[in-house]
Amino acid sequence: xxxxxxxxxxxxxxxxxxxxxxxxxxYEAVNIFSGTLTADDIMEAIxxxxxxxxxxxxxxxKVFQDSNIDFDELTVSELVRFVLDNPSVxxxxxxxxxxxxxxxxxxxxxxxxxxxxxxxxxxxxSEECPQYNNCDNHLNA
Length: 141
What we know:
This protein has 6 helices and 4 strands, in the order E-H-E-H-H-H-H-E-E-H. With 141 residues, the chain is of the alpha+beta class. The protein has a 4-stranded mixed beta sheet, sandwiched between helices. It starts with a strand and ends in a 17-residue tail after the last helix. The mean pLDDT is 87.
């Protein structure tokens, strides 16, 4: 299942959710400010990030700038606790699936979340198919 860490006022978060809805790809949206963000969500983001906290922590956020904390010196549990207490420090949206993490909305990169079977079907789809006009495969390409 794809999980998207979002905030209600984030325009990029709305774009990502709309893209998943338009492509009929199921996901779970986790509002980082509603109290549903868990330590496991944060750990999953950290473990799937290529550059550790640099990928998921917004150094431009007011919380980060006011904290005077060296994130590289924190233990993992201290980092998780800090993020749970200060979720606005997260970049958003953060899209996580079983294999990868993407931060922000990128129209090209987000296509990697289209299920593999659908990508294969789209490539095989042709107008010679008797179901072509009733098939969503070519419409969602």
